[in-house]
């Protein structure tokens, strides 16, 4: 087993947005109370892990428009 295998969740089911037509998307999964993100084009290159509270805060920020203008 490689060191990358130890980081990869064994049974997490990843989902993509219905807006993901080209296949180059962010995939979201959940395991052991963590939200897991990965790049659909490179699913074995590493994962980002977030706690449920961090994820809810991020989603709330999206809904409030906090990230609508990232140019500044």
Q: What is the first-to-last residue Cα distance?
A: 43 Å
**Binned strand content:** 15-25%
**What is the total tally of β strands?**
3
List low-pLDDT spans: none
Describe the structure.
It is a single chain. With 72 residues, the protein is of the alpha+beta class. The protein is built from two helices and three strands, in the order αβββα. It has helices at 3-7, 52-63; strands at 26-31, 34-39, 48-51. A three-stranded antiparallel β-sheet has the order 1-2-3. The protein is globular.
Key structural traits:
single chain, 72 residues, alpha+beta, 3-stranded antiparallel sheet, 2 helices, 24% helix, globular
Q: Secondary structure elements and their pairing?
A:
Blueprint: H1 3-7, E1 26-31, E2 34-39, E3 48-51, H2 52-63
Antiparallel strand pairs: 1-2, 2-3
Task: Offer a quick outline of the entry.
This protein has two helices and three strands. A hairpin with a 2-residue loop joins β1 and β2 (34-39).
